[in-house]
Write a structure and sequence with these properties.
Layout (H helix, E strand, L loop, with lengths): L11 E3 L1 H7 L3 E4 L6 H13 L4 E6 L4 H9 L3 E12 H4 L10 E3 L7 H10 L4 H4 L5 H16 L6 E7 L2 E10 L4 E8 L8 H15 L4 E7 L3 H9 L3 E12 L4
Parallel strand pairs: 2-3, 8-9
Antiparallel strand pairs: 1-2, 3-10, 4-9, 4-10, 5-6, 6-7, 7-8
Helix pairs in contact: 2-3, 5-7
């Protein structure tokens, strides 16, 4: 997501993309560790600037940070896990492909893809947060898949089809150092059939063909099925973050 406008003390940042999408001002706290006094001062400053929602990706192992978040009304909405795979250690270059998976060739999603994108966010912090409007949660994921199919935030979208119906999808992208999986989703009634694993393996094959040595994917600890899927496909935990939401107008 696009980010801009640092706070005066450079300890928080206004997020332009989120602000434009949701229709209220959104910011994030930058340091992973912060003392109660500093966090309190930051929240007070952001409240004066009419910031409505603040994200904080905090160090789960730092006791003082976790206590500060709880004391100041933060909602623990997600234990985020970042998984990584090193292809030189876990995979060779002959990952099998399947005829059911193909590149999505249109620059906008159809209804099936939009539904899958929304399903992919079932454990997301925007769905879990009871204060976050459901219509904005859906808008976020519809925008995410739109910006993936038109290649603004993804390099490719692969779909799994049964007959002429799309029942699974994965979006892939990346930078210079590593590839990245964005959205992954399988239609609820089609789960348990190996479709998710086939999509992840296909994505890994694409990363290798593109010359990536490593790839990453993020999910929530609460999403046990996704965590198991990534680990079964060779990914290993790289980092964990506790994500808090602060609704400043309610504090």
């Amino acid at each position: 997501m696009k980010q801009a406008v640092l706070g005066n003390n450079k300890s928080y940042q206004i997020l332009d993309w989120d602000t434009d999408l949701f229709g209220f001002t959104v910011a994030k706290v930058i340091p992973e560790k912060i003392l109660l006094k500093s966090l309190k001062e930051n929240i007070a400053t952001m409240k004066k600037k009419n910031i409505s929602l603040v994200y904080w990706a905090s160090d789960p192992n730092d006791f003082e940070s976790q206590e500060a978040a709880k004391r100041l009304g933060g909602i623990l909405v997600c234990e985020k896990i970042i998984f990584e795979i090193d292809f030189s250690k876990h995979l060779n270059k002959s990952i099998p492909r399947t005829n059911e998976i193909s590149e999505y060739l249109f620059d906008s999603p159809n209804v099936e893809l939009e539904d899958l994108a929304i399903q992919s966010g079932h454990y997301s912090r925007f769905k879990v947060d009871p204060a976050f409007p459901d219509e904005l949660f859906k808008k976020l994921y519809k925008t995410w898949i739109m910006r993936s199919t038109n290649k603004m935030i993804a390099k490719n979208v692969f779909v799994y089809e049964v007959g002429k119906r799309i029942v699974g999808m994965v979006t892939v992208g990346g930078g210079i150092e590593f590839g990245e999986i964005g959205l992954v989703s399988v239609a609820e009634e089609m789960r348990g059939k190996g479709i998710g694993k086939a999509l992840i393996r296909f994505a890994q094959s694409w990363f290798i063909s593109e010359g990536y040595r490593k790839a990453q994917v993020a999910t929530q600890a609460q999403n046990i099925a996704a965590c198991r899927l990534y680990e079964n496909c060779g990914f290993r935990k790289k980092k964990t973050e506790n994500i808090y939401h602060f609704w400043i107008g309610n504090l």
